[in-house]
Design goal:
2 domains, single chain
Length: 417
């Protein structure tokens, strides 16, 4: 550390140290050109420094700047100006006189500044000798150098305060904006689905619309289907509708959509508008006509409780007992299911050899079916007493779970009607 000291000032980095050496060399050169005992030369030097002729990089230069300021002020108080020049015989006496006048002022300033820096007394006041009254201390009580340091510190504090206020205001605006958008979509979604629930079973708007569906599986196979009457109006408004999911005494009472990918309805609603709540949707590979062994329905776990936001209540066995029945109608037929398994899982890497519930759509054999049932039974949080046999139709409800990375909360039910 001693190697980084210049003119009584210490520097933390080599770059600052080198800058201080450059300032020191510049000061030495100035002093060879200016006679500090001649008032005119000192005042001229001060004027040139104020005009920016000499620029310093470190506190070594600032100290010299303060020294010249004080010396010039002292000469001016004595009535000298830039054109003044002392006779040779008076130089020493004036220099001694100048030092005598400056020493008490500097000593007083250092004493006061020392109290301020130590934190023992505030700059605004100090006690007098009899301790009976306080006397205010103004900025003028300090020397030029101390004034600059005080003002610099005050400006730093004020800038920090302003920056803090601005940052807090920005954070508040962003937070209020986020919650505003969140609740806007939440309220809009609630109203939209309440209106959709009223349209379910209303056939008036579907009058004249085609409610028959022709599905071409192959060139040889063509199936004619008819949409159930209560879903005809909804289907005529959006042909991506595939069914309706309802659990009594819960907020889960929504249309179920299906399209050619599992992305679109993550952030679109039934009306095909952008909606961060998304929609409930059936896995793209599920087939409600040539029925899969297992139909998987996905939905967001919204903090507002929308979509599958309350599905994790099934982690309670008591809740499951009172909400054991799930109604899932396709647009072609009604269906009632009974909850069988409730478990937590996650999305696995492709190369991980583990049971992946989201890949279980069909069982090619009874052995494969029983193996999948065993996997889910072992994962289940509790025993519902409900079991399934090969040939039974299953329904899986899946949503996000924050208990682990890429976590999922899953409810599996067996069709009973």
């Amino acid at each position: 550390m001693e190697g980084f000291e210049v003119a009584g000032r210490r520097f933390r980095t080599e770059a600052d140290y080198k800058a201080a050496l450059r300032d020191q060399a510049k000061i030495k050169e100035i002093k060879t050109q200016v006679n500090m005992e001649q008032p005119g030369e000192v005042i001229t030097l001060y004027t040139e420094m104020q005009a920016g002729k000499y620029r310093f990089e470190t506190t070594v230069g600032n100290d010299f700047d303060d020294e010249i300021y004080e010396l010039a002020q002292e000469y001016r108080r004595q009535g000298y100006d830039q054109n003044s020049k002392l006779p040779a015989g008076k130089k020493k006496s004036l220099k001694n006189k100048k030092k005598e006048k400056r020493q008490p002022e500097q000593s007083s300033a250092k004493k006061v500044s020392g109290k301020s820096i130590s934190g023992q007394n505030k700059v605004s006041a100090k006690k007098n000798t009899d301790n009976d009254s306080n006397t205010s201390i103004s900025l003028e009580n300090f020397d030029k150098r101390m004034q600059k340091e005080i003002l610099h510190e005050l400006r730093k504090r004020e800038n920090r305060r302003k920056l803090t206020v601005i940052l807090c205001s920005l954070v508040a605006v962003v937070c209020f904006g986020y919650f505003g958008v969140y609740y806007y979509f939440s309220d809009r979604t609630q109203m939209d689905y309440e209106n959709l629930a009223q349209l379910k079973g209303n056939t008036t708007l579907a009058a004249g619309a085609s409610t028959g569906v022709t599905i071409h599986y192959t060139e040889e196979e063509e199936i004619e289907l008819k949409v159930l009457e209560e879903y005809q109006t909804l289907y005529s408004k959006n042909r991506s509708l595939i069914g309706w999911l309802k659990i009594d005494d819960t907020n889960i009472d929504y249309p179920v959509m299906q399209t050619t990918n599992n992305e679109y309805y993550l952030d679109h609603n039934y009306s095909q508008e952008y909606d961060r709540n998304g929609s409930l949707f059936l896995d793209k590979d599920c087939d409600v006509v040539h029925r899969n062994t297992n139909l998987i329905i996905y939905g967001h776990h919204m903090k507002s409780g929308k979509m599958f936001g309350n599905l994790n209540k099934y982690s309670s066995e008591d809740y499951c007992r009172s909400h054991s029945t799930i109604q899932f109608d396709t647009i072609y037929e009604k269906g009632t299911y009974e909850v069988m398994y409730v478990f937590r899982s996650r999305i696995y890497n492709e190369d991980e050899v583990v049971f992946k519930y989201y890949q279980f759509l069909d069982a090619a054999s009874e052995k494969e079916f029983n193996s999948n049932m065993q996997e889910m039974a072992e994962l289940s949080l509790y025993d519902t007493g409900v079991t399934a046999s090969y040939g039974d139709e299953l329904l899986t409800l899946s949503t996000c779970d924050n208990s682990e990375e890429d976590g999922r909360f899953v409810v599996v039910a067996k069709r009973v009607l």
